[in-house]
Amino acid sequence: MLSITKQFEFEAAHFLPNHQGACCRLHGHSYKLEIEISGEPNTDELSPSYGMIMDFGDLSKIVKENIIDVLDHHSLNNIILDPTAENLVLWIKDHLPIKVPFSRIRLWETSKAYCEWRR
Description:
Blueprint: E1 2-14, E2 27-39, H1 56-71, E3 74-75, H2 85-94, E4 102-110, E5 113-118
Parallel strand pairs: 1-3
Antiparallel strand pairs: 1-2, 2-4, 4-5
């Protein structure tokens, strides 16, 4: 089994309404998102994606249209009820097309903290 990973970045603001600390106030993050796809490379020698699990360009288009364009430069509270890193990762998972074999989603909220979902 092989996997490919593509990184994305977006900016967004949020607050955690039930949090006891500073995160209950409106603040922003420079998020880094990693999407991993696992599978076997295409063996059809006539296919333009021969030797690939998926074309990186196709993966970029899917993630940009379904995730980045929706979240970038928005208030996440208008999209997700309680936008913790965990809830945001689950929202991202639910908004990626099922037909693509996603195996890992990693969302960096800061340079030292991330949440990860794995199949």
